[in-house]
């Protein structure tokens, strides 16, 4: 079942190139110029009437939703709010007929997410689910479904489900943009072309796994560490930090890099590991100055950088390079080294990687 891997998590990390391909699958026109989400029933007219989008999910799926917010706002220019499902209903969200509510759930059985879905439907919203389980409760009750074709995910720590959810959001963002005319045909074709490169680029990253093992073994000696990043890198930092906590039990915090100096910098001391995501071209200079802030306080910084950005390498202690893609697509690559770091840190600490303490794969209580 583990296909020769030591753990399901590792197998599932290596399943990702296929999961990307399968999730894109026939949803891209053969000429590469359009996406074809033929499964959606929402009409172009209803799409034009959407006044706001709510993305609701838990845990890792919520982190995918944070990327989704960025993607939809950038591509379709519709305002998007994100909520963790356990909070959504209790803040009296403004849900109207022209609200598109997107619920994201690998299992499709998460109680809080299901409750949010039901509340959204009760208020007359159109509910679109991004889920990995055909026939799950979420899939059955939503008005529309984008199925992620990641295949069964057994490890409690979500990996390929998260990245397939990202692909789902890219496809949806493009579909909305096509319908609304918010991106030119050239821009759409450019994103699609870059998406097609992602599976091979993930494989390239996986070939460097051994290098991350060494870094993770060093990390595993510490009790605290930080992830920092700006923009999409911040969303990925949150996911990297959750993954590390979940299976290695090492405490970490993810911080928007520019927010450090508003309190958190007080925790930076000699030798503390900081993983700095710096993949967003426009934000690079700003992130580098935040890296200098932690370096000056003795932090040991691992930078996650895009190929060709040599400037960053001068300000960090070590760098992990990911292949070049469009800024908007980087989360689909930058999260892979973070998944591997968590895996190897968990292993180094002798934990049960696939079944971390206190946690269940599917959370069916509110
Ligand atoms: O099945 P779901 O996507 O609804 O699950 C949501 C979370 O419980 C889940 O993503 C959790 O955070 C993962 N174990 C994290 O790796």
TrEMBL record:
<keyword id="KW-0808">Transferase</keyword>
<keyword id="KW-0963">Cytoplasm</keyword>
<comment type="function">
    <text>Catalyzes the first step in hexosamine metabolism, converting fructose-6P into glucosamine-6P using glutamine as a nitrogen source.</text>
</comment>
<keyword id="KW-0032">Aminotransferase</keyword>
<protein>
    <recommendedName>
        <fullName>Glutamine--fructose-6-phosphate aminotransferase [isomerizing]</fullName>
        <ecNumber>2.6.1.16</ecNumber>
    </recommendedName>
</protein>
<keyword id="KW-0315">Glutamine amidotransferase</keyword>
<keyword id="KW-0677">Repeat</keyword>
<dbReference type="GO" id="GO:0004360">
    <property type="term" value="F:glutamine-fructose-6-phosphate transaminase (isomerizing) activity"/>
</dbReference>
<feature type="domain" description="SIS">
    <location>
        <begin position="215"/>
        <end position="356"/>
    </location>
</feature>
<feature type="active site" description="For Fru-6P isomerization activity">
    <location>
        <position position="361"/>
    </location>
</feature>
<feature type="domain" description="SIS">
    <location>
        <begin position="43"/>
        <end position="182"/>
    </location>
</feature>
<comment type="subunit">
    <text>Homodimer.</text>
</comment>
């Amino acid at each position: 079942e583990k296909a020769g891997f030591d753990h399901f998590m590792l197998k599932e990390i290596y399943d990702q190139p296929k999961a990307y391909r399968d999730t894109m699958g026939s949803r891209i026109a053969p000429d590469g110029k359009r996406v074809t989400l033929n499964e959606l029933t929402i009409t172009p007219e209803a799409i034009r009437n959407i006044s706001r989008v709510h993305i609701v999910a838990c845990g890792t799926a919520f982190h995918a939703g944070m990327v989704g917010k960025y993607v939809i706002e950038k591509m379709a220019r519709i305002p998007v709010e994100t909520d963790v499902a356990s909070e959504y209903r209790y803040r009296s969200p403004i849900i109207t007929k022209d609200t598109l509510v997107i619920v994201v759930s690998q299992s499709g059985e998460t109680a809080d997410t299901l409750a949010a879905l039901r509340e959204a439907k009760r208020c007359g919203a159109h509910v679109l689910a991004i889920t990995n389980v055909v026939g799950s409760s979420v899939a059955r009750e939503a008005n529309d479904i984008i199925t992620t074709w990641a295949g069964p995910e057994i490890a409690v720590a979500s990996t390929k489900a998260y990245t397939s959810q990202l692909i789902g959001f890219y496809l949806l963002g493009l579909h909305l943009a096509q319908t609304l005319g918010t991106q030119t045909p050239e821009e759409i074709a450019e994103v699609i072309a870059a998406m097609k490169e992602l599976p091979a680029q993930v494989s390239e990253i996986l070939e460097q796994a051994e290098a991350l093992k060494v870094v993770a073994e060093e990390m595993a000696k510490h009790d605290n560490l930080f992830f920092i990043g700006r923009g999409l890198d911040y969303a990925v930092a949150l996911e990297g930090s959750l993954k590390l906590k979940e299976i290695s039990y090492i405490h970490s915090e993810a911080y928007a890099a520019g927010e450090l100096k508003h309190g958190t910098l007080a925790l930076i001391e000699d030798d503390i590991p900081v993983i700095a995501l710096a993949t967003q071209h426009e934000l690079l200079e700003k992130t580098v100055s935040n890296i200098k802030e932690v370096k000056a306080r003795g932090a040991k910084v691992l930078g996650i950088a895009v190929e060709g950005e040599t400037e960053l390498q001068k300000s960090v202690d070590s760098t992990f390079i990911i292949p070049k893609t469009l800024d908007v697509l980087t989360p689909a690559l930058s999260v892979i080294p973070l998944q591997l770091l968590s895996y190897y840190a968990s292993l180094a600490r002798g934990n049960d990687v696939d079944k971390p303490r206190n946690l269940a794969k599917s959370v069916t209580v509110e």
